[in-house]
Design a protein that fits this description.
It comes from Cirrhinus molitorella (mud carp). By secondary structure, the protein is mostly helical. It contains 1 helix and no strands. It has one helix at residues 2-117. It is rod-shaped, with a radius of gyration of 53 Å. The protein starts with a helix and ends in an 8-residue tail after the last helix.
Length: 125
């Protein structure tokens, strides 16, 4: 009788141990699945952030190149405007020089006409 009770007790203990071990394995499997799902979810976010960062880096490089080109073009425009302003100043200087020469020529012409005609003699009445 005692032997039978002992065997029943040991059998129940073995069943409990097996049940406990099965539940432990199920819990480990569930925890592993949860961990994998969380990691996968985080990896998607990290991967998207990485892709976005690469796109931003590419856009920054493109913007830097365009900004450099714009700066060069702006410098060329400034140079052209300065050259144009200088040319306008020179045209103004030439115009003033031409007026000065014209006035000198008129003075000389008047003097030559005066010399050529001779002094104006008063007419007797």
């Amino acid at each position: 009788m005692l032997s039978r009770l002992l065997k029943e007790h040991q059998a129940k203990q073995n069943e409990r141990k097996e049940l406990q071990e099965r539940r432990r394995r199920e819990a480990i499997a569930a925890a592993t699945c949860l961990t994998e799902a969380l990691v996968d979810h985080l990896n998607v976010g990290v991967a998207q952030a990485y892709v976005n960062q690469r796109k931003l880096d590419h856009e920054v490089k493109t913007l830097q190149v365009q900004a450099t080109q714009f700066a060069k073009q702006t410098a060329q425009w400034i140079s052209m405007v300065e050259n144009f302003n200088q040319a306008l100043k020179e045209i103004g200087d030439v115009e003033n020089w031409a007026r000065s020469i014209e006035m000198d020529m008129r003075t000389i012409t008047t003097a030559l006409e005066y010399v050529h005609k001779g002094p104006v003699q008063p007419t007797s009445s």
